[in-house]
Amino acid sequence: MSLCSLSQARVVLGEDAADMARAIAVHPGGRELVCATAKGCRVFKLVYRDFGVHLISREASPLQSVGPQKCLTFSTDGAKFAIGGEDGHLRIFHWQSLNVILDEPKAHKSFRDMDISLDSEFLVSTSIDGSARIWKVDEGSPLVNLTRSPDEKIECCRFSRDGTKPFLFCTLVKGHDVWTMAVDISNWKRIGYKKLSAKPISTLSVSLDGKYLALGTCDGNFCVVEVQKMEVAHWSKKVHLGSPISSIEFCPTERVVISTSHQWGAEITKLDVPPEWKVWQIWLVLLTLFVSSAVLFYLFFKHARIHS
C-alpha cells in the first residue's frame, strides 16, 4: 500500500533547493518534528484539528544554522535530541530547552548513522570511513571506539529495545560480504554475527517490543529478523524497486512496517510473522482451561458416585 496519495499535511520550507527537507525526526510524543535542510534544522509543532494535521513552525535558533545534517534522533523518553552533520559535528541537546549537552566538532569524518539506547545512557554513531563510537549522553563525553579490523566497515547501528539484556546491532561490511553483528553493551565486545542479507544494507530498525529487527537494502528490498533466533521471518522484495530504502519503521500496535525511499515515497507492508497474543486471547485461554477443568471434575465426581 502506498501513502503517496494519503498526505495529511504539507508545508513549504522555502523556495530554494537548500530549503528542501533531507531528514526528519518525530518526537516520541507525536506532537513535534524536526526537519533537516542544507542550511540547518527547523522545528514544527503538529496540531491535530479539522480532520487533518497542521504544522506550525517554532523558534529553535540553536538548530537553524548548523548546516546539513545526516542523522537526527530523539531518545525514547523524548528528553534528549541529537544531530550528526555531514561535517562530522555531533551535537546533543536537552529537549525542549535545546540547552547543549555535547558539542563535538570532530566526532567523525562525516556521519553515517546514529542511535540512542533505550535508557538514554548511550549514543552510538558511525562514520562514512567505517568507524563507530560510543558516547555517554548525560556526561556529554566519548566512551569507547568499537573495535574493527582494517578491512571492516561498521555502517548502520541500532540499540535493542526489549529492555532485558541490552545490546547493540550493527551492520558490518567486509569486502563484498555484509554481516549483522550484536555487541554486548556491558563491555562493548562482539557477541556474534550472522549473514542475513546478500545485498548492502541501507537502514536498520528495531520494533518497539524488541522482538524484530528490520534491514532495508540498497536495492529496495527489506527483511525482518526474529531477534531471539536471529533468523529471517519475513522477506519483501522489490518494494522500492532499484531505490535504496532510506528509512523503515515498525507500527507500535501491529505487525506492520512503513518503508520510504526517495524515488517511491512511503509504502506500508503487513508482515508475514506470527501474530501477537492479545490480552483478551490470554484470558479466553485461561477461561477455557478453567471450564474444561470444572467439567472434568464434575464427570469424575459423578462417575465416582455411580460406582459407589
TrEMBL record:
Coiled coil: none annotated. The chain crosses the membrane at residues 280-301. Pfam families: WD40 (PF00400). Gene3D superfamilies: YVTN repeat-like/Quinoprotein amine dehydrogenase. WD repeats lie at residues 119-145. It is a single-pass membrane protein. The keyword Transport applies. SUPFAM superfamilies: WD40 repeat-like. One of its GO terms (molecular function) is guanyl-nucleotide exchange factor activity. InterPro entries: Sec12-like, WD40/YVTN_repeat-like_dom_sf, WD40_repeat_dom_sf, WD40_rpt. PROSITE patterns: WD_REPEATS_2. It is found in: Endoplasmic reticulum membrane. Keywords: Endoplasmic reticulum, Membrane, Protein transport, Repeat, Transmembrane, Transmembrane helix, Transport, WD repeat. GO terms for cellular component: endoplasmic reticulum membrane. The keyword tRNA processing does not apply. GO terms for biological process: endoplasmic reticulum to Golgi vesicle-mediated transport; protein transport; regulation of COPII vesicle coating. This is Uncharacterized protein. It comes from Setaria viridis (Green bristlegrass).
